[in-house]
C-alpha cells in the first residue's frame, strides 16, 4: 500500500507540483486562499471568502514572474502592468476561490499520506535523490514559507483537480467526426495563379491637395503626438546590494557549521515489508483477524527469515512492493506513516519486526540497510553558503537602505542626488517617452501614474519610491516635458498622400481583380498568363500564405475550374484557379491522433468554461470599485 501511494505520487499531480516549484517558489502562501484576508483592503468577495489587495498584488507578481521565465527576452513588462492583465489575474483568483469552496463543501480532501508522497517526489526537497526532511524545511525557510502553508497548497491543488478532472476526462469526439475532419485537413487542391500588380492601376490613382486636407481635418487624432517627458531616476536593487557584500571566511565557516543539515543528507534506511491490509474503520473482529494473520507470518519469519521474499510475493497485500519481494527502497524520516517510520528507525540491520499497526493495516518489517547521515564538504557548497549569507545580509541592509532612500527622495524633493549619494547609486536619465509606451521601469502602473501626473510635470519634483518588483525601488523626476500637439499639415502632408494613394490603389486593384473573377466565371480567360500547376495543402507556403490558403480552400469546388482571389502583403492581387480536388483515401493515423488531441483540448476548454460559469454562479461575487487600479 505504501509503495502504491509512492508510485502514485509520480503521476499527474506530482508533475503539477513540480510545475509550481519550477519558478523557485514564485507562488505565495496559498493558505490565504482558504482562510481569507485578515488584513483588510478587500478588492472582491466570493461567497464567504474575500480577496485582498495584497493577495491580488502577490498573485499578479507571481504570474508576471512565470511569464518572464517562460517568454525570456520576448517578455514585455508593460503587458504585466496593464489593467487588462490585472483583471485576468483577479478573475482567476475569483474562479479559484469558487472552486475551492465547492471542493471543500463536497469534502474533496487530500489525505496526509498522499501529501507526504507528493512532497517526497519534489526534487527541490531531495538530497542525493531521496527526500530530506531537513532540506525540505530549510528550502521553505529560505523562501519565507512554512511547511503548513506549502502542504496546504498541495492539498488545495488536489481539491481543484478532484473537482475539475471529471469534466476534463469526459471530453471525447466521435470517430465519424474525427475521420471527416482528418480528410478535410488532408485534402489537397491543384491550382494555378496569375498576379495583378499594383502598377496596373497606378495611372488611375488621383490624390488632390483637397483630399489631403480633408483627410487631415477628419483624422487629426492620428496626427497628434502624445505628451512626452524625459526623466532622471534612481534604482535601488536588492540583487545589486547583495553582489556588493563581502563575506569573510569566518562567516562562511560559522554558517556552514550552524546549518550542516542543510548541506547534507540525513540518515536513510531501506526496508521491506509484508502488509496484511485492513481498513482503519473496520470492526474489531475484522482487525483482530488481520492482526492474527500478520502475527502468524511474523512468527514464521522469526524462525525462517530467508522466506521473507517468498512470503512477501505470496502474502503481502501491497501489490507494488510485493512484486519487488516486499522492498520499499530507501527513504528518510517524514516519508512514511508515523508508526511504520518509528519502527524502521528503531530497528537493527536485518531485524524483522511485526506486526506493526498503521492506518493501512499490519506490517511485518525487515530492515535491509542503513545509510548514515552525510554532510557535503564545505568546498562543494561554498557558493551556496556565500549566496545565502549575501542574501541574508542584503535583506537587512536593503530594509535600512530602502527606508533611507524613501526618506531622502521625499525630503529632497527637487533632487535625486542626496539619495544617490547615500546609497552610492548613479542618477540615470531616460529618453523621450509617452505614458502608454514607456519602457521598464516606467511601465509600472503606479510609477507611471505619478511621473506623468500633472503635478509631477509641473513641479519637476521627485516621485515617491515605488517597489516596481520585489526587492527593487525606483524614484524619478521629470527633467523635460513636451505637451501633446497636433502636427501641422506641412509635416504630415507627404505621409497622408502616401496613405491615400495606397488605400486608393488597393481598392482599384481589388475592383479589377473582382471584375476579372466575374469574367473567368463566364469562361473568358483571354490575356491571362497562368503559372504552372501546383498541388497545395492547407498549410501556408511561399506560394500560398495563410490568407491565400484560406481563400483556396473556401472556394466552392462543386464546379471546376473554380476561381478565387485575394490581396497579398506585397500589394499584388492574386487570382487562383482550382482545377482539381485530391481527396485522401486512407487517413494517416498520426494526423488522426493529432486532430483528436486538438478536439479533446477544445472540448475540455469549452466544458471547463461552462463548469466555471456554473460554479461561479453558485457564489455571490462582488468586485469592489477600482479593484484593479494601481498596484
Tell me what you see in this structure.
The protein is an alpha+beta fold and 631 residues long. The protein folds into four domains: 182 residues, Triger factor/SurA peptide-binding fold (Orthogonal Bundle); 133 residues, no CATH class; 127 residues; 106 residues, Chitinase A, domain 3, CATH 3.10.50. The protein has 24 helices and 22 strands. The strands form seven sheets. Strands 7, 14, 15, 16 and 17 form a five-stranded antiparallel beta sheet that branches. It is flat and about 105 Å long. The two termini are 49 Å apart. The N terminus is likely disordered.
Structural class assignment: alpha+beta
**Name of the CATH architecture of the largest domain:** Orthogonal Bundle
Per DSSP E runs of 2 or more residues, the count of β-strands stands at 22
The rounded distance between the terminal residues' Cα atoms is: 49 Å
Which fold does the CATH topology of the largest domain refer to? Triger factor/SurA peptide-binding fold
Low-confidence stretches: 1-40
The CATH homologous superfamily of the largest domain: Porin chaperone SurA, peptide-binding domain
CATH class of the largest domain: Mainly Alpha
**How would the global form be characterised?**
flat
Tell me the β content. Answer: 15-25%
Mean pLDDT: 85
Number of domains: 4
Question: What profile does the largest beta sheet have?
Answer: 5 strands, antiparallel
Give a short overview.
The protein has 631 residues and is an alpha+beta fold. The protein has four domains: 2-171 and 612-623, Orthogonal Bundle (Triger factor/SurA peptide-binding fold), CATH 1.10.4030.10; 188-225 and 488-582, no CATH class; 228-249 and 379-483; 267-372, Chitinase A, domain 3.
Amino acid at each position: 500500500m505504501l509503495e502504491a501511494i509512492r508510485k502514485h505520487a509520480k503521476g499527474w499531480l506530482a508533475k503539477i507540483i513540480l510545475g509550481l516549484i519550477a519558478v523557485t517558489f514564485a507562488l505565495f502562501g496559498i493558505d490565504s486562499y482558504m482562510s481569507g484576508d485578515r488584513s483588510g483592503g478587500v478588492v472582491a468577495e466570493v461567497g464567504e471568502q474575500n480577496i485582498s489587495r495584497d493577495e491580488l498584488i502577490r498573485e499578479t507578481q507571481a504570474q508576471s514572474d512565470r511569464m518572464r521565465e517562460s517568454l525570456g527576452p520576448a517578455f514585455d513588462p508593460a503587458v504585466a502592468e496593464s489593467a487588462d492583465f490585472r483583471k485576468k489575474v483577479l478573475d482567476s483568483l475569483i474562479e479559484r476561490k469558487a472552486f475551492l469552496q465547492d471542493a471543500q463543501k463536497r469534502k474533496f480532501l487530500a489525505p496526509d499520506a498522499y501529501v507526504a508522497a507528493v512532497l517526497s517526489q519534489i526534487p527541490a526537497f531531495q538530497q542525493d535523490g531521496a527526500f530530506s526532511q531537513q532540506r525540505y524545511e530549510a528550502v521553505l525557510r529560505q523562501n519565507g514559507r512554512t511547511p503548513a502553508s506549502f502542504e496546504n497548497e498541495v492539498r488545495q491543488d488536489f481539491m481543484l483537480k478532484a473537482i475539475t478532472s471529471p469534466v476534463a476526462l469526459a471530453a471525447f469526439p466521435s470517430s465519424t467526426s474525427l475521420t471527416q475532419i482528418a480528410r478535410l485537413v488532408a485534402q489537397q487542391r491543384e491550382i494555378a495563379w496569375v498576379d495583378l500588380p499594383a502598377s496596373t492601376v497606378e495611372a488611375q490613382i488621383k490624390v488632390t491637395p483637397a483630399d489631403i486636407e480633408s483627410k487631415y481635418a477628419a483624422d487629426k487624432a492620428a496626427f497628434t503626438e502624445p505628451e512626452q517627458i524625459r526623466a532622471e531616476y534612481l534604482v535601488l536593487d536588492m540583487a545589486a546590494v547583495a553582489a556588493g557584500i563581502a563575506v569573510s571566511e569566518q562567516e562562511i565557516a560559522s554558517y556552514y557549521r550552524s546549518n550542516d543539515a542543510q548541506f547534507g543528507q540525513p540518515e536513510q534506511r531501506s526496508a521491506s515489508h509484508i502488509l496484511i491490509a485492513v481498513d482503519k474503520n473496520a470492526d474489531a473482529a475484522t482487525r483482530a483477524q488481520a492482526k492474527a494473520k500478520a502475527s502468524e507470518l511474523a512468527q514464521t519469519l522469526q524462525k525462517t527469515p530467508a522466506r521473507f521474499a517468498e512470503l512477501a510475493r505470496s502474502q503481502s497485500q501491497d501489490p507494488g512492493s510485493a512484486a519487488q519481494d516486499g522492498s520499499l527502497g530507501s527513504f528518510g524520516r517524514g516519508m512514511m506513516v508515523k508508526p511504520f517510520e518509528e519502527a524502521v528507525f528503531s530497528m537493527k540491520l536485518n531485524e524483522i519486526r511485526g506486526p506493526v499497526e498503521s492506518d493501512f493495516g499490519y506490517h511485518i518489517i525487515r530492515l535491509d540497510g542503513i545509510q548514515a547521515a552525510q554532510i557535503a564538504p564545505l568546498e562543494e557548497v561554498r557558493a551556496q553558503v556565500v549566496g545565502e549569507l549575501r542574501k541574508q545580509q542584503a535583506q537587512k541592509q536593503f530594509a535600512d537602505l530602502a527606508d533611507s532612500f524613501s526618506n531622502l527622495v521625499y525630503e529632497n524633493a527637487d533632487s535625486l542626488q542626496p539619495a544617490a549619494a547615500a546609497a552610492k547609486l548613479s542618477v540615470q536619465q531616460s529618453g523621450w517617452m509617452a505614458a502608454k509606451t514607456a519602457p521598464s521601469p516606467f511601465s509600472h502602473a503606479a510609477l507611471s501614474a505619478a511621473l506623468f501626473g500633472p503635478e509631477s510635470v509641473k513641479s519637476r519634483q521627485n516621485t515617491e519610491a515605488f517597489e516596481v518588483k520585489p526587492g527593487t525601488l525606483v524614484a524619478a523626476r521629470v527633467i523635460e516635458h513636451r505637451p501633446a500637439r497636433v502636427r501641422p499639415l506641412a509635416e504630415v502632408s507627404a505621409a497622408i498622400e502616401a496613405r491615400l494613394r495606397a488605400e486608393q490603389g488597393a481598392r482599384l486593384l481589388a475592383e479589377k481583380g473582382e471584375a476579372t473573377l466575374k469574367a473567368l466565371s463566364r469562361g473568358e480567360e483571354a490575356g491571362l498568363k497562368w503559372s504552372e500547376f501546383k498541388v497545395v495543402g492547407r498549410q501556408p507556403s511561399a506560394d500560398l500564405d495563410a490568407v491565400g490558403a484560406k481563400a483556396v480552400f473556401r472556394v466552392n469546388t462543386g464546379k471546376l475550374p473554380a476561381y478565387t482571389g485575394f490581396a497579398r502583403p506585397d500589394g499584388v492581387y492574386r487570382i487562383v484557379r482550382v482545377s482539381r480536388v485530391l481527396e485522401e483515401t486512407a487517413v494517416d493515423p498520426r494526423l488522426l491522433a493529432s486532430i483528436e488531441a486538438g478536439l479533446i483540448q477544445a472540448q475540455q476548454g469549452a466544458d471547463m468554461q461552462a463548469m466555471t460559469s456554473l460554479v461561479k454562479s453558485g457564489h455571490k461575487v462582488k468586485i469592489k470599485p477600482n479593484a484593479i487600479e494601481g498596484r
